Amino acid sequence: MRDLNYNHLRYFWAVAHDGNLTRTAERMAVSQSALSTQISKLEERLGHALFQREGRRLVLTEAGRIALDHADSIFATGDELLDVLRETGRARQAVRIGALATLSRNFQIGFVQPLLHRADVELVLRSGSAAELMQSLAGLQLDVVLANRPPARDAITPYLSHKIAEQRVSLIGRPGIAGDTSLAALLATQPLVLPTLESSVRAAFDALAATLGVRPQIAAEVDDMALMRLLARDGVGLAVLPPIVVRDELAAGSLIEFDQLPQVTESFYAVTLDRRFPNPLVAALLRDATAGKA
Fold this sequence. Notes:
Elements: H1 6-18, H2 21-28, H3 32-46, E1 51-54, E2 57-60, H4 62-85, E3 94-100, H5 105-112, E4 122-128, H6 130-138, E5 144-147, E6 159-173, H7 183-189, E7 191-195, H8 200-212, E8 217-222, H9 225-233, E9 238-241, H10 247-252, E10 256-273, H11 280-293
Parallel strand pairs: 3-4, 3-5, 7-8, 7-9
Antiparallel strand pairs: 1-2, 5-10, 6-9, 6-10
Helix pairs in contact: 1-2, 1-3, 1-4
């Protein structure tokens, strides 16, 4: 069996994050020579140099960056092991949820609703780009990521994409438009606030417009549902949005749903990792979301 000395790995991990051998040696109460020896043994075991010197700085080599990624995951898993098994039979009472910064806030609140009034649950919510969130998920800093498209799955990062909702998409704007308000007429005559070209909703909308023989008047292309909502409220144009995004405005009458766009939908996914010890709170949220979809 191939052995890996995890003490050597931990010393490397500490130096890699500090970027300074002297500082790490002082913090860990070991001599610099002992620290260098431990790292040298790890490099010998792995068969690659992990650092190179640039002046007084230690800079990771390509092999060092790979080793650091794995070390981050290994030690995060160790911390998780202590959290999960410290008190046998008790579920963890914290759940860490990431969501795309551009995702509907109403949808996010709807997903976590079952946990909002539980005094025994610590709810951690973070937002960011897809790349940032997936990196945090892979490093076990997040338990689940909410997104509007599934990420690629591979052997290194075995993501599980749970489709938890599919919302219809409508043409939404301020009331008061006079004249022909049929869908084709609105698309042909009114300025529109559309998702960007990378969006699956935009692709479906463009196909619909081509089928209707309409060339839309584009007032704005936006990748943020919250901003689309504000532009619709300000009267910049009619927005192509799931009604859930503007639920409060629709209820108040400040915005109205002019028409549903046939065969145009927005899908929402909860992305997790295939883990031996999944967070039971996430499992409960997924069951609730799937039940609601059904």
